[in-house]
Design goal:
This protein has 387 residues and is mostly beta strands. 8% of the residues lie in helices and 48% in strands. It is built from 3 helices and 16 strands. It has a 16-stranded antiparallel beta barrel. β12 (308-319) and β13 form a beta hairpin.
Length: 387
């Protein structure tokens, strides 16, 4: 039975390759500036090279390039009216084979249907958002959505207001190659709400000539659910804060972050939270990239009647034999989560391979084995395309 199902997956690969789309980038930027995606991504989207990271930090604008016919000349210098609304589409479809559970082949298409938009509204103001029309069969709504003010009062400070992943200053989940996520960022013990996933708040960041970056976040601390009857999104009176400092030196970047907060747990308890940990990036000319994150978290009482310690992290390696000129790449990801709340323990290993047909079209395959809980494996095949 297992052999027959595996043969079925292999035979279906060709079909999936030409019938599924997965867009992680926003090629509207490439259309706007009439440049290749390779300028910002290495070896292919969504992975950013340094230039792409700087482009995002500048509010999605290239200071040395003039976007042709970007704004409508309406005769009013106070009016920033886009000639065309920049849009991109993401549509996911996969064939999946589960080992060790139901040993079944599944057609997961559409898995995600997403519309993205972003760009500059004026010399200083920019925006970005995407809307999930469909995620795993449900309308998920808005996830990333923010306004950004660049170089506030000439201070070099960037200000973001909206909703985003709290972990974005560490490692952006939306930029990973793998379907398998960074599990430590979503680890939430007991009845706690706060984690390093999506939240509403503000980000203040500033880069220094020494290669030092400082980022401060002030967050609601309870995710991005709907508001109450009084139009209030925060579940309590508390605000959580996160500070991250990163120092770059050549191919090496070393960072550390700290997170402090409180939240009301259903039943009346107040849960005090702190998180902290280092991160490391080693980038050898875009050919070999190593990303490491470690997080320690303590909850005073997340509704379990006792304090809970959680620790874990991930290690990720990306190999592109010719850097941004590579036609293929390999990615390995190790996830580790260990908590006093055993239900959120998680350990897995992932191997992902991609082949680049065009700069905006690639074939992908991925295998993840979960060592914790009900041990099982999952194999996915598909295609990734940006348009």
């Amino acid at each position: 039975m297992r052999r027959n199902n595996l043969i079925t997956v292999i035979l279906l690969t060709t079909l999936v390759v030409f019938s599924s789309l997965d867009v992680f980038s926003i090629p509207a930027f490439a259309r706007k500036y009439q440049i290749s995606c390779q300028v910002c991504h290495s070896p292919v989207f969504p992975q950013l090279k340094q230039f792409g990271d700087e482009f995002a930090g500048n509010g999605f604008r290239m200071t040395e390039y003039e976007a042709p016919r970007y704004f409508v000349p309406a005769g009013d210098e106070k009016l920033s009216l886009l000639r065309e609304l920049p849009l991109a589409i993401r549509l996911d479809g996969f064939a999946t084979f589960n080992f060790g559970k139901n040993e079944a082949v599944d057609f997961a298409s559409p898995f995600v249907l997403k519309v993205l938009s972003g760009g500059e509204l004026s010399e200083k103001l920019s925006y970005y958002f995407y809307f999930l029309f469909n995620e795993r069969g449900e309308v998920a709504g808005i996830e990333d959505a923010f306004l950004m003010y660049h170089d506030l009062l000439g201070s070099g400070i960037n200000l973001f207001l909206g909703q985003f992943q709290a972990s974005d200053p560490l490692f952006k989940g939306e930029l990973r190659f793998t379907l398998e996520p960074y599990r430590i960022y979503e680890a939430t013990p007991g009845g706690a709400f706060a984690n390093l996933k999506y939240d509403k708040g503000i980000i203040i960041d500033k880069g220094f000539s020494s290669g030092t970056d400082v980022v401060l976040e002030v967050l609601n601390g309870n995710g991005i659910g709907s508001s109450n009857d009084e139009w209030v999104f925060d579940r309590d009176k508390y605000k959580n804060v996160m500070l991250r400092i990163r120092q770059g030196a050549g191919p090496v970047s070393l960072g550390v972050f700290g997170y402090l907060g409180k939240e009301n747990i259903p039943g009346g308890d107040v849960n005090s939270i702190w998180m902290a940990g280092p991160d490391l990036v080693i980038n050898l000319n875009e050919k070999l990239v190593l990303n490491i994150q470690y997080v320690v978290r303590r909850d005073s009482d997340p509704g379990l009647g006792r304090d809970i310690m959680t620790q874990g992290g991930f290690g990720e390696v990306i190999f592109s034999p010719k850097g941004d000129m590579s036609n293929w790449y390999l990615t390995g990801l190790l996830n580790y989560v260990n908590s006093d709340d055993d239900i959120i323990d998680y350990n897995s290993a992932t191997l992902h391979a991609g082949y680049i047909l065009r700069r905006n079209v690639r074939l992908v395959s991925e295998y993840t084995y979960q060592f914790s809980g009900d041990k099982s494996g999952r194999f996915n095949v598909g295609v990734v395309s940006a348009f």
